[in-house]
């Protein structure tokens, strides 16, 4: 009787490379929509299985155009032959802090899975755990006023200190100030970019991008080497909205990309916040329009925190916990925030958790709560010691003593 040999490290790396090759081929296949690819992956189990299916099977599961896209020869990617691009991608992921995340990875941002068509593959640099954090987006004009820049930085710092990751787009103006403020806070920032993850745009933000890659996270769905193209940025805005439980617009003219982000956030069931300003200021007009359409008017960071389920006291406690290590000695009860009766939403989440850990996506399905309400309920339960956040974006109920 013979025993099968365990795979060698070299064989394991070849398997990983082949799996990556299949993901890259499908993720960048021309004409294959993310929703169609997700349908195929759900039906057949993985990218290599999808690629091994017949045209008829693929067409029956998705449609003829998806089948044609899957079975087409591997495409050039940004002018680079597919096989050479695979080599470049593998070399890029071998560098410290660089990651390729697929829909099958535990590190894939759970918030994006609540979108109908999440990108099948993401290029990430920096702290992967930040991609699972509760997040708020702060965006606005590239031509912001000094007051707008200061407001964005201050709000971002306070929200980061309270435990929220701040998401923005690395653009000039409000975006850059939001990133800087969040880096000054306790949690950090996520930059969603409209170029390849190996490029920085605008060039003036090289130092800022380096700081974010070191202390936060940079995320892109575009292939390596993709330059800045105007058509990419509305799609980038879609990911900013998808990652966040709410979007804050600080300053925006009537024709502003920030309003696209706000519209996308609203369509995804995320909260939209807007800061008011002078009726005579052009950069207040977009915010005023959003407020007329139902966006929440905010004047202080606490206005945002309350919508996320933080009270002023709990936000201060959270910031203090993050600023200093929690003592090893002492009981869990002594470290808890003073308790209040759980909300109806929190009780629904507790019932939905049961006895097994669950992801945000599973809890959203079981409770029918939108993203902001679900995250607020989870925060209340975490602060009261009833729920614990686990690795991989999962949550588990904590047994009471």
From TrEMBL:
Residues 335-393 form the DprA winged helix domain. SUPFAM superfamilies: MCP/YpsA-like. It comes from the Bacteria. Residues 100-308 form the Smf/DprA SLOG domain. Belongs to the DprA/Smf family. This is DNA protecting protein DprA. It holds the Pfam family WHD_DprA. One of its GO terms (biological process) is DNA-mediated transformation. InterPro entries: DprA, DprA_WH, DrpA_SLOG, WH-like_DNA-bd_sf. It comes from Caballeronia pedi.
